[in-house]
Amino acid sequence: MEVSININGTQQTHDVEPRTLLVQYIREHAGLTGTNIGCDTSSCGACSIHLNGEAVKSCTILAAQADGEEIKTIEGMADADGTLHPMQQAFMENHGLQCGYCTPGMVMAATSLLDENPNPSEEDVRLGLEGNLCRCTGYHNIVKSVLAAASV
Amino acid sequence: MTVIDNQTASNESIAAGNGVVGQRILRKEDPVLLTGEAVYTNDMVVPGALYMAVLRSPHAHATISSIDTSAALALPGVHSVYTGADMADQWAAPMPCAWPVTDDMKNPAHYPLAISKVAYVGDGVACVLAETDSIAHDAIELIDVNYDVHSAVIDLESALSDNVVIHDELGTNASYTWPLLIEENDGDCQKAIDEAAFVVSERYVQQRLIPMAMEPRAVVAMPQPFGGDMTLYSATQVPHILKVMTALTLGIPEHQLRVVCPAVGGGFGSKLDVYAEELLCVQLARTLKVPVRWNEERSENALATVHGRGQIQDIELAADADGRLTGMRVRLTADMGAYLQLVTPGIPLFGAFLYAGVYKLPKAYDFSCTGVFTTMTPTDAYRGAGRPEATYAIEHAMDALARKVGIDPLELRRRNFIPKESYPYEAFTGLVYDSGDHDKAASIAESLLDYAGLRARQDEQNIPGSTKRLGVGVSTYFEMCGLAPSRVLASLNYSAGGWESATVRVLPTSKIQVVTGTAPHGQGHETAWSMIAADRFGVDPADVDVLHSDTAIAPLGLDTYGSRSLPVGGVALTMACDKVIDKARQIAAHQMEANEEDLEFSGGTFRVAGSPDREMPLAAIAFEAFTAHNLPEGLEPNLEAQVTYDPPNFSWPFGTHMCAVEIDTETGNVELLQYVAVDDCGNKVNPLIVDGQVHGGVVQGIGQALYEEARYDDDGNLQSSTLAEYLVPAASDVPPITLGESVTPSPGNPLGVKGVGEAGTIGAAPCVMNAVVDALSGLGVQDIQMPASPLNVWNAIQQAQANHQETNQ
User: Fold this and answer.
1) Residue B804 has pLDDT above 90, yes or no
2) Same topology between domain B308-483+649-808 and domain B499-645
3) pLDDT greater at residue B187 or residue B659
4) CATH number 3.30.450.20 given to B308-483+649-808
5) Fewer beta carbons under 10 A from the terminal one: N or C of chain B?
6) Could you tell me the fold of the domain covering A2-74?
C-alpha cells in the first residue's frame, strides 16, 4: 500500500507492506536511521518521534496510520545551518548522553515534555521521561539537561 | 569537601594546551550522537545482504530428534536454511573459552548452532537467510523441530547432585573448583574462626541479571570474495579479541579478517564476548560470497546475550571483641549457565581477591569457588564482573557483624580500615594496593548524607507501629581495575595478556592523530584521549583526532572492559606522546643548533632555555619531519611512535557510598530518599565523564538491589525476557545522586589514574540493601533476598512477624 507522510518538512511517498511499523518506515523506507529500536514491547522509548507535534513511540503505530500526517525525527531537530536544537545543546552541555542509543528518543520525548509543561520540576521531568529507558547515565544528567533546556 | 554537581561544563573557557587534563570539557562524540548521524551496526546500508534469523530452542534441555526445514525453504524470499548438523563440519574449533581456570576444568564443546542437543531456552537450533528481516523471521516459524525433552536444571545446588547431567560427555555438572587458601605468618582461617569473639555466617544469593545495553547486538559480515578478505562489523566491545577468536574458530587466516565496530550502544560486559551469530554470519558470508547480516531483537537479547552474576555466596567472618576482622572463609557456587562463554569461569575469581574490601585482614583467608552448569543462558562479564558480588558479600556481612558486636556499622568499618599511611599496602592475597584514604572518603559521604542527622531521625521515626521505616545504608569498596598485568593473568590461567597499545602521529600540518587499541562504546575516549594528547603536546584538543575500533586502523589492542581503558590505554597513550616529543626534541635541537637538554617544551613550542627568541613550534618540527630535508643524521623521517604498555600492577579505585531509604511496611515498597557516592578513582582526565560513569554505575547497582532479576520457572523458561518484565530502572525509579570529591592519585602510573567504569555499580547494591535491612532489622528482619521488590520485602516482614509471634507463644 502507498503511504505519504511529511517527514521533517518533506513530503515522502513509499509503497509499504500493511504490517510495516512507523519506525520501520522511518528507518527502512525514509532512510532515517537516527531513530533507534531498543525493544519489542514498546517499553524503551528509543524510537520516540513527534507525530503532529507530540512525542510518540514509533513502534506503537503502523506506517499506514501516519498516512497524511506530519512527523519529525531527530534528523529534523537541528537547524539547516548546523545549530543544534536547544534540547540537543542542553544534552551536550550537561553530559546527558553516553553511548547515545537512547538519546534521539530521549531528546524527542524531552522536547515534547517541555511543550506541554515549560517549567517542570525535577519530579515532573522524571515522571515525564519514565517511558524512555537509558542504561548509561543513571538519568541524573538527562534530568539536568531537560531542566537546563527549560530555563533557556 | 565539595558537592561537584553544580559545576558547569563549557568549552569556551577551556585553555588549550598543557593543563587541559582535569577540565570539564564537552564531549566531541556528542554532535553525531545527538543528531542521529551516528551509524550503529543495524543502521548500515548493505546492498545485496541476506538477513539471518535464528530459530531458538523453546526447551531448556532436550535432544533434537528431527528438523524439517522444507516449509521454511518454500517461503518466497527465503534463500537458505541451515541446521546445526548442516554446519557441523564447518567449524575449525568450538566457540572459544579463553579462561580455563583450572587444568581439569570441564568445558563442553559449544557450537554456534546446537548439533544434537540443546542446553537452554534460546540455544540456536537453525538459521534462515532471506531477502528481508521480516521474511527471515516468518521463515523460522515454519521450521518444524521435534525434541525429546529432558528435565531442566535451574537450582545450583541440585545441579551439583548430578541427578540430571546436562552435558553427557562430561558426566557431571561441576565445571571446576578453584581454591585460594592463604594461611601463613599471621593467619590460619579455621583457628581464627575457632578463637573469634564474633563469628558471622551468612548466605547471600546474587540473582542473575540481564545486562540490557540499550542497543541489542547486531552483525554484518561483508566478504570480498575475489580479494579474499572478510570484514566483520559487530556491536562489540572487543574488536581485537573477536578478530583473533573468529580467525581461530573459523580457520580464516587472521590477516584476511578485519573487525570494525561502528557506533556501539553500550555493552556493560555483555558485548565482551564471541557470539554464535558473529561466527554464523562470517561463515555463511564466506561460503555464499554475499554479505550476511543479523539484528538481535530485545527478547532475543534476553536469551542469547550473556547474563551476569548468578552466585550463591557463603561467607564466614571471624572478628575479635572490638569487631576487628581476624579471618574469613568464602565458598561460592557460581552459575556458569549452559556453556562457558569467553571468560565465564573466571568471573567469580575476580572477586576472590576483594572479599576483605578496604579492611585489614590477616592471612587467614580460605576461598573456594565451584562453577556449575545449569540449563540457562550462559553467564559472563557484567559491569564489575565478580567484584560487585565480592563487595556485596563483605559489606552486607559487615553490617551483620556490626549488629552482632552492637556498634554502628560506620564505626565498625572505621575500626577495620587500612590506614592511609600503610599504602602501598600488601594485602592478605599478596597483591599490593596502590593508594587509599578510606576515612576521608567515608567522612565526605557521612557529611553529605548527614549521617548523624539521619540516625537521630531514625530513632524518632522507627517506633513501634510505624508503617514508614527509615533505613540508612553504608558501603565501602576497593576495586581491582586496570586489567591487567599480563603475568598476573598468566598465574590465573587466562589465555591472553592485559597490555594496551597506542600510536601517536603528528601529521605534516601539525594535527595529531591518536590510534588506540581501546574500544569505547559510550565512555568518551575520543574526548579523553584528545585531552591527554593535547595536554602532553600543549595543543588544542580539537586538533587531535582519535582513531579506534577498526582492526585495520588500530591493529593492536585488547579493547574496553574491566575499567582498563584509562589506566592501561591512557597510560600507553601518554607514553607514546612522550616518545614523539622526545623525537621532536631531537629535531628541534638539531635545527636550532642547541643541546636537547637545554630545550623546554610548553604550549606546543620548544624554546632554548635562557634564549627566549630561539624557539620552534611543533608545527615547524612536524613539517621538517615530513620533508626530511634536514634531520639529524640517522633519524627516521616523520613524527610517529607506538607504545605497548603492560601495567606492572592493577589500579585500586575505592570509595564510600551512603543512602537513605524509607520502607512502607504495609506495601513493602522501598523508596530511595537520598544517595551519596564518593568514588576516588585517582586523578581525573575529564571530571564530567567521571561523574557520568558513576551516575550510571550507581543506578545499575540500584537496579540489582531493588528491581532486576532474570527469573526462570522450573522448566527453565526465562520469565523476564522483555523490558516489560525485566525492570531496568526508569528516571522516576531513582533519585538524584550526590557526588563527593576525593582524589588520591595512583602512584602506579604517570597519569595517577585508576579507572571508574565499574565503581558505581560495585558500591551501590550493598549500600541500598544495607539500608533496606537497617530499616527493618528492628522488626526482626535478618535479611532480604535481592531484588528488594515490594513482594520480597513484604514477605520478609510477614515472616519476621510470624517468627516473633511463634517465639512469644
Assistant:
1) no
2) yes
3) B659
4) no
5) C
6) Ubiquitin-like (UB roll) (3.10.20)
In our burial notation (b when 16+ CB lie closer than 10 A, e otherwise), range B2-20 reads eeeeeeebebeebebbbeb
- Work out the number of other CB atoms within 10 angstroms of the CB of residue B691: 28
In this structure, what DSSP letter does residue B41 have?
G
At B20, give phi and psi (nearest 5°): -70, -30
* CATH of span B42-150+216-264+271-304: 3.90.1170.50
Interface test with A, best of B14, B24, B25, B30 (most A CBs within 10 A): B30
Max Cα-Cα span within chain A: 45
pLDDT tens-digit readout, B238-294: 999 999 999 999 999 999 999 999 999 999 999 999 999 999 999 999 999 999 999
- Looking at residue B2, its pLDDT comes to 40
CB B645 within 8 A of CB B500: yes
Name the percent of chain B lying above pLDDT 90.
96
Domain boundaries, chain A: 2-74, 86-150
Residue among A40, A100, A135 minimizing CB distance to B299: A40
In chain A, what residues touch B35 (CB-CB under 8 Å)?
Answer: 34, 74-75, 77-78, 84, 88
Residue of B nearest to A73 (CA): B36
d(CA B54, CA B57): 10
Exposure string over A15-51, b if 16+ CB within 10 A, otherwise e? ebeeebbbbbbbbbbbebbbbbbbbbebbbbbbbbbb
CATH class of the region B499-645: alpha beta
Chain A residues in contact with B10 by the CB 8 A cut-off are 93
| CB-based contact A93 B42, cutoff 8 Å | no
Q: Could B722 and A41 be called an inter-chain contact, meaning their C-beta atoms sit closer than 8 Å?
A: yes
Superfamily of domain A86-150: [2Fe-2S]-binding domain (1.10.150.120)
**Which cell goes with B59?**
526447551
Please check whether residue A136 is in contact with residue A95, taking contact to mean a CB–CB distance below 8 angstroms. Answer: no
> What 3 state SS string does B515-529 have?
EECCCCCCCCHHHHH
Q: Give me the pLDDT at residue B520, please.
A: 98
**In the numeric block, which cell numbers belong to residue A101?**
542509543
Per-residue pLDDT for B15 more than 60? no
Q: Which residues in chain A touch residue B39, judged by CB atoms under 8 angstroms apart? A: 33
Segment B543-553, tens digit of pLDDT: 999 999 999 99
Look at residue B1 and tell me whether its pLDDT is greater than 50: no
What is the distance in angstroms between the CA of the first residue and the CA of the last residue of chain B?
53
User: Among A33, A98, A131, whose Cβ lies nearest the Cβ of B692?
Assistant: A98
Nearest-by-Cβ selection for A138 from B8, B33, B737? B737
Q: What is the pLDDT of residues B191-230, one digit of tens each?
A: 999 999 999 999 999 999 999 999 999 999 999 988 889 9
**CA-CA distance, B506 to B525, in Å (whole number)?**
19
Q: Which residues of B touch A77 (CB under 8 A)?
A: 35
C-alpha triplet B682, B683, B689: angle, nearest 5°: 100
**Do B21 and B87 form a contact (C-beta atoms < 8 A)?**
no
Taking the C-alpha atoms of residue B333 and residue B369, their distance in angstroms, rounded to an integer, is: 6
Show me where the domains of chain B are located: 42-150+216-264+271-304, 308-483+649-808, 499-645
Q: How many CB pairs under 8 A join A and B?
A: 179
HSE-up of residue B779 (Cα within 13 Å, Cβ side): 32
Query: Which of B29, B266, B736 lies nearest to residue A136, judging by beta carbons?
Result: B266
Question: pLDDT by residue (tens digit) across B319-367?
Answer: 999 999 999 999 999 999 999 999 999 999 999 999 999 999 999 999 9
The domains spanning A2-74 and A86-150 adopt the same CATH topology? no
Taking the CA of residue B302 and the nearest CA in chain A, the distance in Å comes to 10
φ and ψ at A80, to 5 degrees?
-60, -30
